[in-house]
């Protein structure tokens, strides 16, 4: 399963994204800058169950991060 998320972030920093599944971290996470401080994040999930989606801008989590994502 492939999922997409979109984020709008202002300023200059580094975007960090991680997805942790019930058995191991997600092996494929892609970040694409789509212009005007907007980013598209895609990740491929192999295992069913609860996953943690962590999104950080520099050293700080974006509001709501980490997110719990359930895949059943």
Short description:
With 72 residues, the protein is mostly beta strands.
- Structural class assignment: mainly beta
**Number of helical regions:** 0
Task: Determine the N-to-C terminus distance.
Answer: 11 Å
Overall structural domain count: 1
Biggest sheet layout: 4 strands, antiparallel
Mean pLDDT: 86
Shape: globular
% residues in beta strands: over 45%
Which assembly state applies to the chains in this document? single chain
Q: Enumerate the spans where pLDDT stays under 50 for 5 or more consecutive residues.
A: none
CATH class: Mainly Beta
List the helices and strands in order.
EEEEEEE
Radius of gyration: 12 Å
**CATH topology, which one?**
Immunoglobulin-like
- Topology, number of strands: 7
What would you say this structure looks like, in words?
- InterPro entries: Filamin/ABP280_repeat-like, Ig-like_fold, Ig_E-set.
- Filamin repeats lie at residues 1-71.
- This is Filamin-A-like 4.
- This protein is an all-beta fold.
- The protein has one domain (2-71): Immunoglobulin-like.
- It has strands at residues 2-8, 15-20, 28-35, 38-44, 49-57, 60-61, 67-71.
- The strands form 2 sheets. Strands 2, 5, 6 and 7 form a 4-stranded antiparallel beta sheet that branches. A 3-stranded antiparallel beta sheet has the order 1-4-3, with no helix packed on it.
- Strand 5 (49-57) and strand 6 (60-61) form a beta hairpin.
- The relative contact order is 0.32.
